[in-house]
Amino acid sequence: MEIDNNTTVADIVAKNYKTATIFKLYGIDFCCNGNRTIQEVATKKNIVPDTLINKLIRIDRGSKSNNDYQSWSLDFLCDYIYKNHHTYVEKQIPEILEYLTKIAKVHGDNHPELHEVMQLFKESAGELTTHMKKEELILFPFIKKLVEASNSNTPLSPPPFGTVENPINMMHTEHDNEGSRFRTIAKLTNNYTPPEDACNTYKVALAMLQEFEEDLHKHIHLENNILFKKAIKLENQLN
How confident is the model at residue 71 (pLDDT cuts 50, 70, 90)? Predict the structure, then answer.
């Protein structure tokens, strides 16, 4: 998007909610006072306008991934999932909960579905946190042992859970549960569409939820369709 000194904060956040993180960083109100221009907010916060604009542009441009996940080694893929998806979930959960709490308090009377959305996301946050720890402490380390045994051509010590398929089956079930939960959230929010009376905080909260779901879809895809299938195949080959 085009951003200059005369662009308003509200217009910027409306076009790309990720820019809200920059405004939050500088303590700039993008909700109730979003009609101010970049020049106005920069002057008030004693920020060089170009500094603010450049950061907003970098956030807006983002980056697109052209990674060939299928060609990656399983141990590298485990690390990638942890660094890019597990850490994302851990970082976003408290911020999304903060936004949902605010909009449920302010808009909950007119939009009672927000209370259910917040409850569903709290449940998801708890389940995902436990789910990821099981992967980080049990499943991923064993997959790395599979890779190590294959690379060094050494015997594989049997795991306490029998076969890698057992924890993988559990992960599949938990993935399905999260998919179902977020389908309900999407339905309750009309596919994350802000109502006419939505403030910027409301819009940002829905956009963050949508991004969270999109990241979760990619996260689950990498595990279900690549990592888990290859881990089962590798274990069978070693045995």
Answer: confident
Query: DSSP code of 34?
Result: T
pLDDT at position 29 over 80: yes
The sign of the dihedral angle between the CA atoms of 101, 106, 109, 114 is negative
Cα–Cα distance for residue pair 44/81, rounded to 1 Å: 41
Model pLDDT, residue 67: 67
**Residue 224: DSSP 8-state:** I
Q: Tokens for 113?
A: 């579905």
In the DSSP assignment, the letter for residue 48 is -
- Contacts of residue 145, defined as CB under 8 A and 6 or more positions apart, other chains included, come to 156, 157
* pLDDT higher than threshold 90 for residue 104: yes
Q: Quote the pTM value.
A: 0.81
Residue with tokens 């603010």: 52
146 CB contacts (<8 Å, ≥6 apart)? 74, 156, 164, 231, 234, 235, 238
- Sort 170 into a burial class: Cβ within 10 Å, 0-12 / 13-18 / 19+: middle
Please answer whether residues 27 and 197 qualify as being in contact, where contact means their C-beta atoms are separated by less than 8 angstroms: no
Residue by residue, DSSP assigns 57-75 as HHHHH-------GGGS-HH
Cα 112 to Cα 68: distance, rounded to the nearest angstrom: 43
- What was the pLDDT predicted at 60? 82
Q: Is residue 63's pLDDT more than 60?
A: no
DSSP readout, 204-216? Answer: HHHHHHHHHHHHH
